[in-house]
Amino acid sequence: MATPLPPADRDAAAVWVARMDDAEAWTMADEAALQAWLAADPRRHGLLLQAQAAWELPGAIAAPAQIPEAVDEPIAEPARDRRRWARRGVLGGMVAAGVAAVAATRYVLASGAEYVTRLGEIRRVPLDDGSVMTINSDTALKVNLTSHAREVELAQGEAWFEVAKDAQRPFVVASGAVRAQAIGTAFSVRKREDGVEVLVTEGVVETWTAADASQRLRVLAGERAMVNARALVHYQASETAPVDRALAWRNGMIDLNGTTLREAAEEFNRYNKRQIVIADPDVAGEQFDGLFRIGDPEGFAETLKATLSVSIDSSDPRIIRIERGAENSAMK
């Protein structure tokens, strides 16, 4: 039987998350200390994930100022803070968010910092300028902050950026030939096979391509744009596909609203080693609504079975095969 983690580790995870929430106070030294604490016991990744989920609950409170200097020693919690931190009792129930782990692999480079998340990992990273990145599953990006510019290069995957205002240092995300510049805003950038998708949750973003910087598209809060080397395509937000639903992954969820099962399967496959395969083309075109945990493809498949009368084959631990049920096949 595995030895349970000591209570001090749970306390430490809560302190780390609280300190990370103060982006202005978070430093590269803090980040290094956090990585050392996580590396000392792989199980601490799960604790940190739980603490992050609890911190996002309504009524989050201010963080204790102390950050652990010796990562292997228990953290002394002042008596006056015990009531303020009683909310940590909810952590155990938040594991169902379904994210496999919270800590991204991070490499410090001569010209900046590179962040890489594995399949199923989601990471919230404060930057030295006061901005915060939330990095989605299977993502690789590089950050370079200088005295005159703030640049992010997204090689693959997706990230959401809460950008601190700094008129002297533009915040630009590059993905291939596509550029997106924040104008006091919060927005996400996702690299897709056919281009780059930009979703704006607050403020304004300008987007363009490296081939023609003179042609710029302004995307407002609640809107999205798909950009590639040949075209800028602007999508207005709508009741059926609001931006916030597309960014439900920030809370460990997949929000489907009139989504085809083909698209839903692709979303689940972004986060899970066990892949969903829609074997029947007719079934793949079916539309579906629902809110699901990103780490629960089995639950999604069982819901389809109950609501759409499809057949589920879970005999292979690597895939979940979905096809038309026997009854429907006979009627076809």
Automatic annotation (TrEMBL):
It comes from Novosphingobium pokkalii. This is FecR family protein. It comes from the Bacteria. The keyword Transmembrane helix applies. Residues 114-206 form the FecR protein domain. InterPro entries: FecR, Ferrdict_sens_TM. Keywords: Membrane, Transmembrane, Transmembrane helix. The chain crosses the membrane at residues 90-109. The keyword Metal-binding does not apply.
